[in-house]
Amino acid sequence: MSNLSPIQELLVAAAWADGQLAEKEALFLRRVLANGCVSVSQIEACLSAPTVEFGDVLGRLSVGGAGEEVMREVLRMLQSDGALHTKEQDLVSRLAQHLEFSPETVEKMRRELTN
């Protein structure tokens, strides 16, 4: 994963949070990684199996003022398959805590993205 940014790694880990990669999550991830100049072979590796642990990424994640956009991007991807599973909800809660967002703030973002 050395040539993925921490935010790209975060999205990969989030995509695999529930242990499977839904088709819409894979399409979302492929688009984001391709726009981030990630090689085709690296994208395929990210789509074929979990390649990074969320906790490891979170420990390295520093987003500065971009925290809200990072949270929105994670929510967009996780909700792309129409559901937010329990393990994905746990991941969102951990990310929110790391970014110092209240549950209410995250819920507001989530609702805005589903409307």
Describe this structure in words.
It is built from seven helices and no strands. It is mainly alpha-helical and 115 residues long. α2 packs antiparallel against α3 and α5 packs across α7. The longest helix has 14 residues. The chain is globular and about 40 Å long. The mean pLDDT is 88.
Summarize the structure.
The chain has helices spanning about 5-15, 25-35, 40-50, 55-60, 65-80, 85-100, 105-115. By secondary structure, the chain is mainly alpha-helical.
Q: Approximately what portion of the residues adopt beta-strand conformation?
A: under 5%
How many beta strands in the DSSP annotation? 0
What is the C-alpha radius of gyration, as a whole number of Å?
13 Å
Element pattern in H and E: HHHHHHH
Number of alpha- plus pi-helical segments: 7
pLDDT averaged residue by residue: 88
Question: Low-confidence stretches at least 5 residues in length (pLDDT < 50)?
Answer: none
Shape: globular
Instruction: Report the helical percentage.
Output: 55-70%
Largest sheet: none
Q: Which structural category fits the helices and strands?
A: mainly alpha
- The N- and C-terminal alpha carbons lie at a distance of 34 Å
Tags for this model:
single chain; 115 residues; mainly alpha; 7 helices; 68% helix
Blueprint (SSEs and pairs):
Elements: H1 6-15, H2 23-35, H3 40-48, H4 54-60, H5 67-79, H6 86-99, H7 103-114
